[in-house]
Design brief:
The protein is mainly β. It has a single domain, classed as Jelly Rolls (Sandwich), CATH 2.60.120.10. Helix content is about 5%, strand content about 40%. Strand 3 and strand 4 form a beta hairpin. The radius of gyration is 26 Å and the shape is globular. The chain binds (2S)-amino(carbamoylamino)ethanoic acid (UGY) and manganese (II) ion (MN). The site of manganese (II) ion (MN) has 4 residues, from loops. Keywords: Signal.
Length: about 300
């Protein structure tokens, strides 16, 4: 009886002593360790950290005066007026903004009706191709990095044969002028003076009182940052197209990267520094020319 009990103890102890190979599991990056992969323990910075894969983890953050919406937080759904297309609303009057900003995943043969009466629309093509249909035999092809502005009460529609990825800004038109349809290529839009700022600036809509918003394209080299620590009544809807850096919004400092979207309410302190090894480009909505007392 006593002998067999001792044998059981010995057998258990032997099983608990790991083989040398098992002992090394986890001490160096091994693709497979007894059927398990422990290499994540010793991953290097070069491999990057998979924050996006962490359950429940998101940098997305919503506050009364600003919001950061990461790629992982987008939710696509059908939207009235869009056919064979899904939209992800990132900014809308539902959170107090005077505009809507959304991404559209247009599928093959997808299309959009004109916006609702009184609503103006700006479209930037990020991927694929779309066409503005002005009449039966009159359409304008929009390829990636081109844009179109639809004034309120337009009859022009939008369609895509092979699918496209779009960024759309819309708002109820308030300026009381005569805005007209326009389209163009981002790169052909002239660079504007910015001193004392060092970033490169393009404005994609005319800077006249006929328009109540503009869409800016801003380019920063790594290390460049906003000189002015801005606080202003204008609202912003921003999409980081390329690069990474730190965005300050109010008292929060956010590491940001391409794909991140930001809503800035009136008067939120805002500042950006481009970091990393590649330039930053972002596109940003800004309401303009409307008297803040009236609009
Ligand atoms: O024009 C602007 O207000 C712009 N410079 N703001 C920003 O980039 N946050
Ligand atoms: Mn600003």
């Amino acid at each position: 009886m006593r002998v067999s009990a001792a044998l059981v103890v010995l057998a258990l102890a032997a099983a608990a002593v790991p083989a040398l190979a098992d002992e090394l599991c986890g001490l160096k990056p091994t693709p497979s360790c007894g059927g398990h992969d422990y290499s994540g323990v010793f991953r290097t910075h070069e491999r990057g950290l998979d924050f996006g894969e962490l359950p429940g983890f998101t940098r997305s953050s919503h506050h009364a005066d600003h919001a950061l919406i990461g790629v992982e937080s987008r939710v696509y759904a059908g939207q009235r007026g869009w056919k064979k297309a899904l939209t992800a609303h990132i900014v809308s009057p539902a959170r107090g903004a005077n505009f809507a900003m959304y991404l559209v995943d247009v599928k093959e043969d997808g299309s959009a009706e004109p916006p609702k009466a009184g609503v103006e629309r700006f479209v930037l093509v990020l991927q694929g191709e779309a066409s503005v249909v002005r009449g039966k035999k009159d359409s304008i092809k929009l390829s990636a990095n081109t844009y179109a502005y639809f004034p309120p009460n337009t009859t022009f529609t939008l369609e895509s044969e092979d699918g496209a990825g779009l960024l759309v800004y819309e708002r109820v038109y308030l300026a009381g002028g005569k805005p007209v349809f326009s389209h163009g290529d981002v790169e052909e839009s002239p660079l504007l003076p910015t001193e004392p700022e060092v970033f490169k600036l393009r404005k994609l809509l005319p800077q006249t009182a006929d328009y109540d918003f503009n869409v800016h394209i801003m380019d920063f080299q790594p290390g460049e940052y906003l000189w002015v620590k801005e606080v202003h009544y204008n609202q912003h809807g921003l999409l980081l197209l390329e690069g990474k850096g730190i965005y300050r919004l109010g008292d929060s400092w956010y590491p940001v990267q391409a794909g991140d979207a930001i809503w800035m309410a009136p008067y939120v302190p805002q500042w950006y520094a481009a970091l990393g090894s590649t330039p930053t480009r972002y596109v940003i909505y800004k309401d303009t020319t409307v008297d803040p007392l009236l609009g």
